[in-house]
Amino acid sequence: MQQVIESGTTDSYDPDHFNAQPGQWHVDVNQLSGSPFNSRIRFLKLPGVTVYDNRWGCASLVSGESPPDMLMIGTDAHPETSTVRWCGRKAHRRLFACASEGKAIDFSVSPQAQDVVVLIEPDLLQKVCGAEAVDLIRSNAHLEFATAAGDSLVDLILKFARYSETHASRLQQPFFGDMIQSKLFRALEDCFSHLHSAGTLSPGSRDEAVSLAMLHARESRGHTTAWNMAQAAGVSQRMLEYAFKQALDLTPGKYLVLTRLNGAHHALVDADRSTTTVTDIALRWGFNHLGRFSAAYRELFNELPSSTLGRPLHLRR
Fold for domain 255-315? Predict the structure, then answer.
């Protein structure tokens, strides 16, 4: 199912206006320097999860509450050039502050600071990262992730925030939201994976997970994501990738591409050249870039899709 995306940018030039930022935040902002106050908030909202990119123009002290019914983690996007102190500790790309369901938070920012925040519903985080992740956020003021995992999550949020500002119309393309959500959830899973045991799958459970994920992919005609496949199989995305590697020597993502390419191939064979084009079929199977589709198709089937289009099977090479 296509995810509906909301995005936007809010510029504030006084602390009171900052309080009107997107979401159900309850905050109090106080300036710590004589510089004119200004901030810019970019946000990207999908069902159950929202990411924020906050930029600050002057030193400020912020206190208040995170939105109700949501969990929060946040950190400094660029600690090498500015300072963000979350709940009394200097944040960096490994150390994230936590808050849960209306919990009070306090942080200070230096001029030109930039922080990133993830809000996510507890039930959704549990599906993505397990119940242990929810417990960790609720019971800790800070979490220290692996360096690479923290870096990846921050960079992904910044990338999506920039994209939402410069390519807002593209966000509504079919399945774009699913792709963003899948990448974000994988990054979150990587962050929490080293903090608790992910468990293992028995061979029987592994094969069942692969079968359920493949069934979901076929029923959706390839228009899904690896994360949605994992949800259909009842396992984490990381565990599904392990299961696919063991069973098929493929990643779920590669399997999806192959599913769509083969679907397009069958559609090209059955098509009527007088009424159907290669572009029609490429778009139907989720390939929005015709050049990349043609290259991938040729690599798999040793011919261009235009050569397959409408040609009877007995004439194929």
Answer: Arc Repressor Mutant, subunit A (1.10.10)
